[in-house]
Amino acid sequence: MDSALVLHRLHFAFTITYHYLFPQLTMGLAPIIVVLQTIALVNGSPRFQRAARFWGRIFAVSFLFGVVTGIPMEFQFGTNWARFANFSGGVIATSLAMEGVFSFFLESAFLGIFLYGAHRVSARLHWLAAVLLCAGSWLSGYFIIVTDAWMQRPVGFEVAANGTAHLTSFWALLSNEWAFWQFLHNMSGAVVTGSFAVAGLGAYYVLARRHEEFARLFVSLGLLFALVASGFQLWPSGDEHGRLIARHQPATLAAMEGLFHTEAGAAITVVGQPDVERLELDNPIRIPRVLSFLTFRRWLAEVRGLTSFQRDLWPDNIPLLYYAYHIMVGLGTLFIAITLLAAYYWWRGRLYDTSWLLWVLVLSVPLPFVANTAGWMTAELGRQPWLVYGVMRTVEGSSSTVSGGNVLFTLLGYMGLYTVLSILFVVLIMREISEGPAPTAEG
Amino acid sequence: METLWFLQITFVLAAYVVLDGFDLGVGILTLTLPRNDADRRVLINTIKPVWDGNEVWLIAAAGALYFAFPLVYASSFSGFYLPLTIVLWLLVARAFGIELRSHISEPLWYPLFDVAFATASVLLTFFFGVAAGNVVRGVPLSSDGYFFAPLWTDFTPGLRPGVLDWYTVLIGLLSLATLAVHGAHYAAVKTTGDLRSRAGAVGRAAWSALVSTTVVSLIATLRVRPEVLANYRTHPWGWAIPVVVGCTLVAMRYYASAGRPQRAFTASAVFITTMIGGAAFALYPALLPSNTDPRYSLTIYNAQTGAYSLRIGLVWWALGISLAVAYFGVLYRSFRGSVSLEDELDH
């Protein structure tokens, strides 16, 4: 693999990973803010109004970071992946351009009203702005996932005489089964991030005995969303998504699971380190037959191992793919355990006196970010060595006119810029948290 | 069909320059216009709720280009790799320059935000002009439709030009003058009193620069790329374009002096649209001309995507743009009228 290609891949991986820290928070907070705004609109409660305004401010900060780190993504298909952009533009430019006209305009126009219009427009229009903002951000997610789903499972196209992909069915592209489940899985992942942030901050306020009239509202509302979303992550969305991988990317499934050799009644690996040289899993802890059941709903079904595929079909970074997948699943399981436990204590009325559990909620806030990142790494490392699965290889897609030196220049630039942004984000969020939702002098 | 998409892209690009143009222009004016922090706050508040939406038109233009002519998107974005990346960084800096004020309300930091905002606005305006200059001048496309332009070579528009040469720099200056005037008109519409009259004065000063850069760059264009006249010769109605350019130049000066900033603003908006339309008219059917061999130029014919996508795209694109226009109607209605200091926009 030549060094320019490695740099192009690192460039995309770095900028997209950093970018997605913010949209998962905003897409997750958006429905929670809509619920708060709706209650505030219906019963006119100033408490809910302030709560909505507080989370609106956190949303605004995150949204700003999401926008400024997102714009480079839209351009990077062209700058760093020109040959891919040219090949697949006949298909994915449809979903990308639709994202532009259907969600970016919606989001940006109503963000202005949502942020700056509270005193200028009617309460109803302000509420509508929040709803449309939420809809816009979720719609944006759908178009991006349609794009990725086409790269994972290309449908509705043909390769034309000039060697580029041309769309043959608009509906096949938009209703790709892969997009459907990936979207649900991804969005409930975002809600896990948002709801853990709300519950965790509430727990912090309870522990710190600050803003107590809001603290409990945040904990209970956050927990409610977290409970539903983390369960939904496992079933049906995670389960169905896994079965799609088994059907369309069997080599990827084998690599994710660390399954080197074909097994009937395949065991699922909980812990272990894949050794790609010796084609073995070190220090394994495995549960027999579970992988066969999860994949094919039959305990004794045969699951193909990596060695049954040609070597040039293997994902090119098997250990990282394996760990990313296991981190995602491990954390996902942990989220279910935490939310069930906290919900049980809440139901028995003891949650707010159980400080260790409140601490668990506080310390869990960063974990969904890790899990969502690991999930995306699973999806995209699992797609390798293909850019468009089975159609175009990653080595064929990068910009051939852009040298490695130029890519490194901009990669280092982004790293520096994003370091500054990270510090800024932490400072801004800390200020919001210390100010809190309580009424201030300006009201 | 491909001509229709050429027109669409031109339209969205013009909408972008007219809309984001006035907030970039206001950004340039924050260098000279405000006498104190209150002035600066009023100026920034005139664009705060709308700048982000205006910027989306740039994304939409890029999206439409990618959608209809994927090869042009792939070729130009990789070929202009460095300047494009720098533009993206400037967009980040500008966004923070304007938005951080409402999150960090300590005057200690204001100069930092203001410098970032103003500098980024100036450089972006300049680079957008440079980009337009590069497209008109042409780039050294190879037979497979790709090229790579360094930031500069010997600053002449020869066979191995850089992104910056004397011609593209000139177009960059034209762009600065245009948006300074446009921004001054907007500021005059949205403010009152002393600030308004000073915006008018700055606008009149920038107007002289605009007239001279317009004339010089027209002459320079004829020298660097005489082919631009071809379409005007075959379609003489195109000569209406320079006539409109001249009329709007006169009109903006007249209305600005007559104290009618709304009309002056309309005149500068028409001026921008016509200038972009004129460039598009001269280039058609090329989207990215080659400066070495005209056969390598990327045109609407050799760069277009499949006919099916273009056809179905027309339906959703028309729907999407109509919705966008409706949202912007609601947005600008919500923030209509002039802005004063009492009008706090903090959320």
Q: How is this structure best described in words?
A:
The complex is a heterodimer of chains A (443) and B (347). With 443 residues, chain A is mainly α. Chain A has a domain at 181-395. Chain A has helices at residues 3-43, 46-80, 82-116, 123-152, 170-174, 177-208, 212-248, 250-257, 290-296, 318-347, 355-363, 367-383, 404-435; strands at residues 157-159, 165-167, 263-264, 268-275, 280-287, 302-303, 386-388, 392-393. In chain A, helix 6 (177-208) crosses helix 11 (355-363). Chain A starts with a helix and ends in an 8-residue tail after the last helix. Chain B has 12 helices and 2 strands; from the N terminus they run H-H-H-H-H-H-H-H-H-H-H-E-E-H. Chain B starts with a helix and ends in a 13-residue tail after the last helix. The mean pLDDT of chain B is 92. By secondary structure, chain B is mostly helical. At the A-B interface, helix 2, helix 3 and helix 13 of A face helix 3, helix 4, helix 5 and helix 12 of B.
Q: What gyration radius of chain B follows from the Cα positions, in whole Å?
A: 20 Å
Taken from the alpha-carbon principal axes, the silhouette of chain B is: globular
Assign a percent range to the helix content of chain B: over 70%
Q: Would you list the SSEs of chain B in sequence order as H and E? A: HHHHHHHHHHHEEH
* Total domains of chain B: 1
Strand residues, percent of chain B: under 5%
Give unreliable regions of chain B as ranges: none
* Major protein interface: A-B, 73 and 62 residues
* Basic shape of chain A: globular
Query: Biggest β-sheet of chain B: count, sense, barrel?
Result: 2 strands, antiparallel
Order of helices and strands of chain A: HHHHEEHHHHEEEHEHHHEEH
As laid out across the biggest beta sheet of chain B, the strand order is: 1-2
What's the β-strand tally of chain B?
2
Oligomerization state: heterodimer
Q: Radius of gyration of chain A over alpha carbons?
A: 23 Å
